[in-house]
Amino acid sequence: MTKKSLSNRSRRVSASDDLEVSAYLEIAKEKSGQHSSTSTSDHIHHEAIIIIDFGSQYSKLIARRIRETNVYCEIVSPDQNWESVSHLNPRGVILSGGPASVYDQDAPMAPTWVYDQRLPVLGICYGMQVMVHQLGGKVIPTTKREYGHAVLHHGGSSQLLFADLPSSIPVWMSHGDRISDSPPGFYPIAHTENSPIAAIADGNNMIGIQFHPEVVHTPDGKTIIDNFVHEICACGRFWTPANFVSDAVKDIKDKVEDGKVICALSGGVDSAVAASLVHEAVGDQLTCIFVNNGLMRKEEPERILKTFEDHLKVNLVYADATDQFLSALKGVIDPEEKRKVIGQEFIRVFEREAEALGKVDYLTQGTLYPDVIESKTDDNKISATIKTHHNVGGIPKDMKLTLLEPLRHLFKDEVREVGLELGLAEEMVYRQPFPGPGLAIRVMGEVLPEKLEVLREADWIVMDEIKNNNLYNQVWQSFAVLTDTRTVGVTGDHRTYGYVIAIRAVTSEEAMTADWARIPYEILARISNRIANEVLGVNRVVFDITSKPPGTIEWE
């Protein structure tokens, strides 16, 4: 595409545009077999699937499902031009869902290169509607909205997207618009009770589906995505932990060269894997810094130091900044502000410790995909901000160090696989996630030393019972929250007015969605009894049974 055309890359496409619909239709009829697989010796980023993100909170789930098929993918915004993604050698494009309607004045559209480049395209929900709208079809509001489960009836094995699937399958719908007219050259390939055109295609190259294959509520969704990636786009299966480690180590070496690196260690798997990757690449050029921010759980600083000394043979500096963090948090109540304050203070500590080490060039963080998708960043311009992660939106603009984030495009389960590939101990790899802001976002309201001590004691009991009952590896996270609510209670013959502790336990695979864990009643009863009797200042315990969505895993 020319430089001039790039300035108009977000415009709608019609038959009179530079992209001629008739020319497109000839292109779209070509078979995807022309995209041959690369050899196993090729670089793992030699091919990729590009996901155009129209603001869906589940775009990262699409990416995760593609990664599960051992194919690399990247998410880009609709304003990205071809030159910004062509180096990845895209083999196909997925248009995500989104909250807009295509007939809205400022509705985001697919860039014209999506249609220019002769690549297979899969439009999902809003992505399907975008494709229909841009290529000459019609999308209208519907009075019969579809939210939740539906049964999809499709045409059979002639459509590669549905290969090896029954003719009727359960799917998950979430839309208020529908296709009334297909674009020229397209035809319906599936329907539901409320959607006469629930999927369209022009063959096996351009396909649109109204349902969401990326969510667990579409049981055959993984097969559908696998069919698109491998049967239609003809991708190889090169995205593996071993290949990632090899590629990441090379990339770190090329970036750092002879520079010095510090790594922020939190005790969690993310920072441990990030540190291991960097150490593998640059060896003693790396110094790890473990900051005790005063917001950790009971005896956690001591346990973390011992774990790293036993399993990670790296240069390690311990910095106790408890007073600095608690002072900065004084009077702060808003959870967004808490996260930003903590992120800024972390950077200040790292900069101070870096000065003591001499000239330091890079700061390594264990930032993951979910951190990025839930924060407003350059990578996430359309999706709504759910919460600012301290290591993303909380970084001060005047930071002197250059960030090194080797895990920025990985999900938690992928990080764990990479950790095992690097030889890390299972006790490190399968440690339950702990938020970077620590207990600050599990203390509702102002973070005070006395409130932290109450929470530490309650959280210790929760973890003790979870481990004693062999549930630690069965749940994604389990912890206590100190609410800012007090209730009347009775202890002996005396009236009490104490804090309410909430117990949170969830199951998940990637932290983008989660369900509350069905902890047996007898275990919950024991946790409640112990907290009420052993933790001073608490007289009531509740159990959180909220999924994500609508809630988040953490309370703040």
3D structure, described in words:
The chain has 556 residues and is α/β, with parallel strands linked by helices. The protein has three domains: 3-232, Rossmann fold (3-Layer(aba) Sandwich), CATH 3.40.50.880; 241-429, Rossmann fold (3-Layer(aba) Sandwich), CATH 3.40.50.620; 448-543, GMP Synthetase, Chain A, domain 3 (2-Layer Sandwich), CATH 3.30.300.10. 31% of the residues lie in helices and 22% in strands. The protein contains 16 helices and 18 strands. The strands form three sheets. A nine-stranded mixed sheet has the order 2-1-3-4-9-8-7-5-6, with helices on both faces. Helix 8 (269-282) crosses helix 13 and helix 15 (449-468) packs antiparallel against helix 16 (521-534). It is globular and about 75 Å long. The chain starts with a helix and ends in a 13-residue tail after the last strand.
**Strand coverage percent:** 15-25%
Major beta sheet summary: 9 strands, mixed
Number of domains: 3
Q: Would you tell me the overall average pLDDT?
A: 85
Report, as a whole number of angstroms, the end-to-end distance. Answer: 45 Å
CATH class of the largest domain: Alpha Beta
Structural category is alpha/beta
Q: List the uncertain runs.
A: 1-43, 376-394
Say which CATH homologous superfamily of the largest domain is assigned.
Class I glutamine amidotransferase (GATase) domain
Work out the radius of gyration: 26 Å
- Number of DSSP helical runs: 16
Shape: globular
